[in-house]
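Teaching note: in complex prediction, the entire set of molecules is handled at once rather than each chain in isolation. The prompt given to students was simply: 'Predict the structure of this complex.' The entities are:
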Amino acid sequence: MDTRQQDRRRIRAGIGLGIAGTFLIAACAATPPAPTAALDAAHLAITEAERADAGHYASNELAEARIKLDSANSAVTDKQMTSAERLANESRTEAELASARTTEIKAKAVNAEMQRGTGTLIEEMDRHAGEQK
Amino acid sequence: MNSSHETQTRGRSLVAIAVASILLAACAAAPVKPSGAEEARAKLTQLQSNPNLASKAPAAIAEAERAVQEAEQPQTDRDLGLYRVYIADRKVDIAKAQAQTRYFEDQRAALEAQRQSARLDARTREADAATDQMRQARADDEAQKLVAAQAQLQADAATAQANQARSDADAANNSAVLSAQQAAQQAADLQHQIDTLNARVTDRGLVLTLGDVLFTTGKSDLQSGATSHLDKLVAFLNRYQNREVLIEGYTDSVGSEDYNQGLSERRAESVRHYLSGQGIDAGRLSASGKGERNPVAGNDSATGRQQNRRVEVIISNPTIASR
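The expected output is the structure of the full assembly:
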């Protein structure tokens, strides 16, 4: 009874050490799979920015997002998966920035248009008032 | 025995952990804060301390804050550090763009209010211009009515002339022509007087309408401009002593009925008082207030209400005795 328990504990300790060792080795050696999700997200973010007309309003950001995505794809070919994932994330963030800047510029333009409309109305009224007098 | 074995196992685990730590430490150089992290932090702080933007895009700013904190972690992997700084920098830019967008959107309510008030101004001015035009049109219309009344008067005069001629012919054959001439002269004279007075010829007699412009709003005192008009009436009444005068005040429907009744009475009375002050026999004058009754136009428009606020001076047709 006592010996059997001891044996079992020894086996368990052995398994524990084995698993820990495997993890350590895996951390150093294994090549992770291609970062498909990150690449897809970057691609989607670029498409959305294009649809918002970022090519017109934030062309620098959009161009950089495209370059980053190309680099990410090259890194996948070179099996540099960590680098590929980071590049894909950078591409996506850059594309999101392109969209955000586009929205900002459009919002600003709307306000300017409203102000100009009101300005014209007031000007016209003043001119009419001038004619009446 | 049992407990000593457990101690042994625990000891082995500790050794394993120590070995693992040493292995990891062997790989790592001294960790440093990635370059560029401070710039990202400065940019974020600037955004967070901008009173116009700090509260506008809370989710994006919180995300930027997390990214910057991550980028600030001391790092032995140089590439990972640079990657995190890159992401943090763009996240701050995104937060700033979103906050700026919200700020612009929030301004629109004020811009819209400005536009509305400018539009309202424009419409008010248009309405004023339209009212002026309408007033002009009404004046033209009244002038036309007067022409028509004069035509009627001429016809009446002709009839009177004929009647006069006939009755005179009955009374005295020889003076027929002379009497007709006199009647014609009288009629022409009367017409001239009525022209001066701007009066309308109606079934009830000659009606002279004094508009509300002759009174101060809500008051019964006559304005100075009104008296020149009334002086013509005085001259007319002095000339035609056999005519009696009925003065009726009217108001629009704004305000209580009692108040309007009182105001119309006071205004009529004010005119009566003026005429009697000018030497017209008080026995020929009677004044009454009609309040909101007998509107001449709709009370639903400013123009209509203005037409309803009036004092009518009705100069009775001469009594039969004068024929």
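Point out the following to students. The radius of gyration of chain A is 30 Å. Residues 1-30 of chain A form one domain.
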